[in-house]
Amino acid sequence: MNAAADPLARGWCPGILRPMESGDGLLARLHPPHGVLSPEQALAVSEASRACGNGVLDITGHANLQIRGVREATRAELEARLGRVGLVEPSPRAPFRVTVISPIADLVSDGGLDGRALADTVERAARKVELPAKFLVAIDCDDRFPLDHLAPDIRVRTAATGHLLIGLARQNGVVWGAPVSPAAFEETIGALLERLGRLLRANNVRRVRLLPHTELEPFVDQGQPGPATRSGHPPRAGLVPLGTARFAAIAAAPFGQITADMLAAAADVAQEAGLPELRLAPNRGLVLAPLAPEKASTALHGLAACGLVNDPADPRLRIVTCPGAPACASGHAETHDLAARLARHLPARPWPASVHLSGCRKGCVRRGASDLTLVAGETGVDIIPDGGPFDAPVAQADFDVIVQHLEGADGAADFAHQITGGRAPRCATTT
Length: 431
Ligand code: SF4
Fold this sequence. Notes:
Layout: E1 20-22, E2 25-30, E3 36-37, H1 39-52, E4 56-59, E5 65-70, H2 75-83, E6 99-101, H3 115-127, E7 137-139, E8 154-158, E9 164-170, E10 173-176, H4 185-203, E11 238-243, E12 246-252, E13 257-259, H5 260-272, E14 278-281, E15 285-291, H6 293-305, E16 319-321, H7 335-345, E17 355-358, E18 370-376, E19 381-387, E20 395-397, H8 399-408, H9 412-420
Parallel strand pairs: 6-7, 7-8, 16-17, 17-18
Antiparallel strand pairs: 1-2, 2-5, 3-14, 4-5, 4-13, 8-9, 9-10, 11-12, 12-15, 14-15, 18-19, 19-20
Bound molecules: iron/sulfur cluster.
Organism: Amorphus orientalis
EC number: 1.14.13.83
Protein name: Precorrin-3B synthase
């Protein structure tokens, strides 16, 4: 993928008014407020995807929706269709939405803070200042759906006192400021965004973690221990209790993608459950909530009937993959087809709990380590047990050979031993 076609290498984000070139046509990204669509909007997106794109949509890790395969000839119609349901951004200039929240952040009880209200406060403040296109604020105040997997510029958490903690991204973690009362949050976040926008421009960098440490004084001077560490990942599939006899039905998009038909069917499920919203999850799924107990299981099965993954034990949830070929011009393999095959052969044993199948060495969807990383190349698939796409592979093999050895492997070392035939791993240069 050349720089002009690589979303990660570019300093801008696609929207509806300014889609991005991709291997399968133009990619138009929707940024619905709070990551929420009404069933009517979801149906309109589904129809627009069929009429103006190739009928394939991505649910992104920031709870956005991407319409793939749009053509120059259908751009105007796409804008018109989405404009009729209020889903076109007011200007082609990003950032369109700087916040990411839990998909159930508004369904609070016991005096908890409403994540949507906090997000609205941040969005209001962000509109008054100039921020880079990819600037991100995680409103991470809902322990039922933690957002630790995201790498935002700013993280907002709740302190035990009911105050808010604001953390700034650093290269090796987060530095936390002093607790802020909910009443003072708007003024504090407004001042911080204004200052960060100025510093990012002055230092010619796009992410807060790249700012020199000294630039963040006096915020750093007030550094606090930060909130308690949480364990676990946000739920990807199943029923999540919300308290007061309500549930959220959560289902994952297989490998992050759905079809227009799946989206339309999910909108029908939401309507049948009497819900006004379809919630996009920032771990590439859909959420229906709040649901009474007698409707919750029906809704979850309904999402499965649409083709989404509703079982937390489904092996597809152990695999992450990028669009790959033909959606991405740099892809050396059709990653979604391979991932589906891989899922059918993943052993029930604990290893590998996480597999990253990458269409090329760029590793767009996960830069860090997985139990097993497979990187498609021109001459075969690089195999990296217990590592990430930038680590040295132990071997390169045909995909069928990998699948065959995977079924019998008992852990990373055993797999590496089998795949290399007991030889020392081959040396490889990595960047
Ligand atoms: S990792 Fe996947 S999406 Fe990223 S450039 Fe390579 S093939 Fe394309």
